[in-house]
From TrEMBL:
<dbReference type="InterPro" id="IPR000073">
    <property type="entry name" value="AB_hydrolase_1"/>
</dbReference>
<dbReference type="GO" id="GO:0010143">
    <property type="term" value="P:cutin biosynthetic process"/>
</dbReference>
<keyword id="KW-0812">Transmembrane</keyword>
<keyword id="KW-0472">Membrane</keyword>
<dbReference type="GO" id="GO:0016787">
    <property type="term" value="F:hydrolase activity"/>
</dbReference>
<feature type="domain" description="AB hydrolase-1">
    <location>
        <begin position="210"/>
        <end position="328"/>
    </location>
</feature>
<protein>
    <recommendedName>
        <fullName>AB hydrolase-1 domain-containing protein</fullName>
    </recommendedName>
</protein>
<dbReference type="InterPro" id="IPR029058">
    <property type="entry name" value="AB_hydrolase_fold"/>
</dbReference>
<keyword id="KW-1133">Transmembrane helix</keyword>
<feature type="transmembrane region" description="Helical">
    <location>
        <begin position="31"/>
        <end position="53"/>
    </location>
</feature>
<dbReference type="Pfam" id="PF00561">
    <property type="entry name" value="Abhydrolase_1"/>
</dbReference>
Amino acid sequence: MWEAALVFGGKMSVMIRTTLAIIGKLINDVLSFVIFSILDVLDLVLCFVYKVIDFFIEAEWKPCYCSSPKEAMSGTGRILVSEKGQSKKIVCLTSTKIQLEEISDTLYTRPSLVAEVSKTTVKELKRRKINDATTMVASINKSTVRSSSTFTVNNTIVEMLQEKIGGHKSHPIPRWSDCDCDTCNSWSNACKDTLFVHTDGPKDNVGDDVLFIHGFISSSAFWTETLFPNFSKSTKSAYRLFAIDLLGFGRSPKPHDSLYTIKEHLDMIERSVLEAHKVKSFHIVAHSLGCILALALAVKYPNSVKSLTLLAPPYFPTPKGEQATQYMMRKVAPRRVWPLIAFGASLACWYEHVSRTICLLICKNHRIWEFLTKLITRNRIKTYLIKGFCCHTHNAAWHTLHNIICGTAGKIEGYLDTVQNRLSCSVHIFHGEDDELIPVECSSNVKTKVPRANVNVVEKKDHITIVVGRQEAFARELEEIWKTSKLKG
């Protein structure tokens, strides 16, 4: 009798949890639909507001991605070129050469939530029809989407716009909506054209080199305020440690005319670290978005990488029939109010002008937020993390998010294939079990492509606490990885 009561109680408990989960999901879906529908309208309103303010303060309209691709690109001295069946490219004209840079279509193609839900509903209704009708409708839809989302410019237009681009007016530095503090603008005052690099270890290249690459809206402080103080003296005497502020973040340059493509990011890393410090071979440690740059760098220098350590790599294999860039955007920014980190990612990814407003409130006034964080928490690490979170421009964050995270979605699989087939270095992956932004399945996906990768899922840790809060343990783990790779080498 007692056993039957226990079984019954267990079933009831499962039913209650299941019911509560369904109700919670329903509430989240409804709230998300309402809030993001309002944000769709708000973003359009803010578009006009910022155009007016930009015009009165800077005496010109600032092109945005609500505009047509032609207007936005010509306004920045660049032209969008798209050939059928190929990814979009930017043509950048200078006085001496033409450069082609790939950009993500997610900069332009971000349908409103109402349109997205309508499209999904219609697609589901069509799926229920007979196969012939479904096939016919699907082909019509594909042609319609292609024609509406692709802007094609004949290559001869490049020559026609040379005169206009040659007289392009540069923006003031900083712009009115950007921070004007010495930290954020030290690069412009010193006329620097390289990244800010925090170095530690021996001055001469007597041992191994390690490159640390931070994630999105972060800085080198993510490493220097957590790991660097916890490395042993023997490690600091044997390894040169390089922690960079990526282009557009921290104390690195934040050019207004940059599209922050993967080529631009890699070129700056090469110029600021590999060439400037004569680095021939190196270990890489990267977090989140930095993992994409780490993979691209490893593919470019397959014989130079001694070990590859990735924390929370954002790899979502694209299902057949899906567009890689759009699929990635929906995975990292699902337009949900909960969890909060997903809500923040959705604001940053889907709404150009809402996110600019957030940057205006937070980044331009980051000194206030840093002071309040220090006053409330009395925690040095958290203060530096807030500083790294706030020290960027909207232009840098917006383009990096779309052109690196979304824009490289179709390339990551090729990067991983190269790592597996051409690189002999060890590959180590760390992922927080409770990561709500980049789920653990992403690391499992990497393991599928690179079977030799060692995946370590850390219990009760999330996207940030995978390092912060366990920095001493992680420092020991990295030292062991580097030591082992040296012995194998």
